[in-house]
Structure formats: C-alpha cells, structure tokens
Amino acid sequence: MSLRSCEEQNMIIEIVEFDDDRLEAAASLVAARYGTELEQEPLLSRRYQHAAETIPFLHELRNKGPGVAAPGDGRLIGFILGMVSMFKGVYTAYVPDFGHGTDTLKSRNVYRDMYAQLAARWVGSGCFTHNISIMAHHRQAIDAFHSLGFGMINIDALRDFSPGPDLPHKIEVRRAGRRDLEVVMSLETKLKRHLASSPIFIPSLPNPEMQRSVEEELLDSDQPIWIASHEGAPVGFIVTESTGRGPVLA
C-alpha cells in the first residue's frame, strides 16, 4: 500500500492491507494490551487477556470495513480495523478498543502512519468523522491520536459493587417502571439538549424510534432504568445494560 520513512526514529514503517491471515496475530496484540491494562484496572474481566477470546470480535469487525496492518521483522507490529456507520446523522468511522494494537516501542509513529493510510480511504468514500476508543493507560496511542487532532468525547469508568456514600438529604432513587415513560423521555430530551450545547457539540437528530426503545427498556428486567428524585421531582436517571458485546472489552 505504501512505504514511509520515519526519519526521526530511523525506521521504515510498511503499511499494508489487513487480511484474514493476520487475525490471530492481531488478537495477540489486543490480548497483550488488555493484559497490561488489567494490571492497572483489576476490575476488568480476565477473559480478554486470552487471544482466542478476541478473534471472533476481530473477525466480525474485519467484515465491516477496511483495515491496515504494519508488518516488521517477520511479525505484525501494528494494525487498525474500523467500521463505517451512521452516528448522529453523519457517516462516521469508528475503531473500537479491540480494533487496534501495536507491538513496538515506536507505537506513536506506527499509529500515525497506519491512521494516515486508513483515513485517506475513509475520506475518499465520503466519511469525514473518525472516532477511536483507546484503553486508558495506552499512553503512546493516546499521544499519537492527540497529535493527529483527535479530542476526547467520552470516558468509560469502572467501579465495584460496594455501597457508595449515603444519598444527599431528600434524594430518592428508585427503579423506573412503565408508568415512568413520560419522565424518562423528558430526562432523555434534556440530556440530548445538554450534549448538543457548548462546549460538547454532539447534536442528535430526532429519533422516532426513541420512545419505543425506552418502552422496551422499561419492560426489560435485565436492563433496569433508575430514576433519582429530589422532593418528588425527577432530577436524573441512569440506564444499566448487560456486559455483552460492546465497544469496550470489559
């Protein structure tokens, strides 16, 4: 695909098309990175430190869009796989945290070169918005994408199930039911307005299916919605979901 010289590091990075023959090596990179993350965040599931557990994710991702790989010294030293879909009304390329990895001390340069190749293809197909999820302690990856102009859009956090601090006075938390549809819809609308405001600027197009989706969530015993009220007036809500397939390996 291309050959680029990184003069500052006296190395040559070759970027090629990602193919199925590289899936196993890519899964090993993800598992190794996850293992490092697990040392920092012991609440993470131990499941994904094994490459065999990430291969199905990568295989599915491979079928959703193009990818690039960086071979070196007879092994895979980096890869990026992403998908393109509609997000907030625009075509958006997204790389989940299991969709990329490196195995080199020069990860920053490898990431920059891989992204340059893949981004050109995304833009060439009319996709100008690019998102990537990065594990919290992967500093070289974070630095690489910051240097390319990326900013932060959200953070995923973990905590155990130990009791939190006592609720503030006059705050009540309860599980929402079907009768709370109007309340949850109102809070959803306020949240979307907040996300569209400065300095966040993440507007959402009207979604005619949102009410039906909320209704289904209110009836789903495995994914409860909780409402917080102050002196009887709803002031907040949280939606819980099962830890199945998602953008974050957890």
TrEMBL record:
Please name the InterPro entries in this protein's record. Acyl_CoA_acyltransferase (IPR016181)
Q: Would you tell me the protein name for this molecule? A: N-acetyltransferase domain-containing protein
What's the source species for this entry?
uncultured marine microorganism HF4000_137B17
